[in-house]
Write a structure and sequence with these properties.
The complex is a heterodimer of chains A (68) and B (170).
Chain A lengths: L2 H25 L7 H8 L3 H20 L3
Chain B lengths: L35 H4 L10 H20 L5 H5 L2 H13 L11 H22 L10 H11 L1 H20 L1
Classes of the chains: A mainly alpha (68), B mainly alpha (170).
């Protein structure tokens, strides 16, 4: 297995893990925090809200405007 | 005369908005109680009228359609991402801080932290390795589609707007 295949497999595993955590958080909320709880915790204060928005903007900027 | 001022404690329609006023004025001795019809009126503090919501959705779809037309890696395409950020920051700054809510425990956050840390590590490892064909980053994976397909950028903008709206409305 070359490096490219290994890295793509890694991304796939991480994506599947995120999906599994999302599903698990709804089935067993006592074990895994839900996405909305994480977002609420991060955006509770104004500074956190701004930091999260800057991260959100960077993702959009990077994928939508700087990919080509 | 009892004035409950349309406050019904059990009917808080928008708890996240934090704008429903709870202002019970307790009856003094000898005062009569307001008719049921009065006290069941709920002060519905919808954050915005439904019509405004549809207008915002329409403007967002139109903006996404136009912004997706712009060629990536050009100044117009890069500048097109700034107004949504400015609008989101304006909304986020205007919104008052929420009352402290119980934060999720570390035990419940840990699985997310582990997976996200693994993702960030993988992205950083590939970012500083070359050639890009052998060490693809997430952006280099989506680049062929994002660079050439309007529909991909359009859908990307819509998803991006939806996530941003969810973050500032939270």
């Amino acid at each position: 297995m070359n490096a490219r295949a290994l890295i793509l497999t890694g991304y796939l595993i991480i994506g599947l893990a995120l999906l599994a955590l999302t599903l698990l958080s709804h089935r067993r909320p006592s074990s895994v925090a839900r996405v909305c709880e994480l977002a609420a915790g991060a955006t509770r204060r104004r500074a956190g809200r701004l930091l999260v928005l800057v991260a959100w903007w960077w993702v959009g900027f990077h994928v939508l405007a700087r990919s080509g | 005369m009892l004035r409950l001022r349309n406050c019904v404690a059990a009917a808080k329609p928008y708890p996240a908005a934090g704008r429903v006023s709870f202002c019970p004025t307790f009856p003094r001795f000898g005062e009569s109680v307001a008719p049921i019809a009065d006290i069941t009126k709920v002060e519905r503090c919808r954050p915005y009228p439904r019509r405004v919501l549809w207008v915002v959705v329409g403007v967002g779809i139109g903006y996404a359609a136009v912004a997706a037309l712009l060629t990536p890696l050009t100044w117009p395409a890069m500048l097109a991402t700034v107004p949504p950020l400015a609008l989101a920051c304006w909304v986020a700054v205007r919104r008052p801080n929420d009352p402290p809510a119980p934060a999720p425990t570390w035990r419940r956050v840990l699985p997310w932290a582990v997976v996200l840390a693994a993702g960030v590590t993988l992205e950083l490892v590939t970012l500083f390795r070359t050639p890009r064909e052998d060490y693809p980053t997430l952006s280099s994976i989506v680049s062929p589609l994002a660079g050439s397909q309007w529909w991909f950028r359009f859908v990307g903008y819509l998803i991006w707007f939806a996530v941003g709206a969810a973050l500032v409305r939270r």
